[in-house]
Amino acid sequence: MAGAMITITLDHQLAAREMTLTELSRRTGISTVNLSLLKNNHAKAIRFTTLNAICDALNCAPGDIITRTSGI
Q1: Model confidence, pTM
Q2: The CATH number of the domain where 59 resides is what?
Q3: Domain range for residue 10?
Q4: Which of 20, 25, 39, 40 would be a feasible disulfide site paired with 10, CB 3.0-4.6 Å?
């Protein structure tokens, strides 16, 4: 499937919980810079430990913040 992309929808999860990136950083111990890279889809990779910490803090599953979209 040409053009398929993995995107991070962290901003949607934060908005749904009325949580700031700073608060997520405080809860996870992940720097706001790294969370911002993820939130803005500028990260090239994500560690499972990072993903797990985010999911714990947001009480969600990985599929709630990672999606695969098909391109044309």
Answers
A1: 0.87
A2: 1.10.260.40
A3: 5-69
A4: 39
